[in-house]
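hey so i finally got around to running the thing on that chain from the lab meeting. sorry it took forever, my laptop kept dying and i had to restart like 3 times. anyway pasting the input first so we r on the same page abt which one it is
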Amino acid sequence: MIKEWSVVTILERISIDPKIMHGKSCIKGTRIPVYLILNLLAGGLSESEILHDYPDLAKEDIQACIRYASMLAEEEVGVLEAAEIV
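ok and heres what got predicted. didnt touch it at all, straight out
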C-alpha cells in the first residue's frame, strides 16, 4: 500500500530552523540534514544500511526526505544552464 503524504505529514518529520545546521532542512529532532540522506540513497546505500548507520532515524524519516525532495522538484524554477551544473 502506498502511503499518502501531505505537507503536514512531511512537517512531522522534517524541520527547518535557522539555529540548526544554518537553516538546512533536517530530520526533526536531529542535526541530520535531508540532503545527507538523499546523497546516501543516491550513492547506492539501502534504506536498511542508512538505518543501521543512523539508529536515531526511522524508515518514515527516510521516506519523508524522498517526498520532500519530490515536492521541491515539482516547484517551478528557472532554466538551468549547463554552466550552472557542477
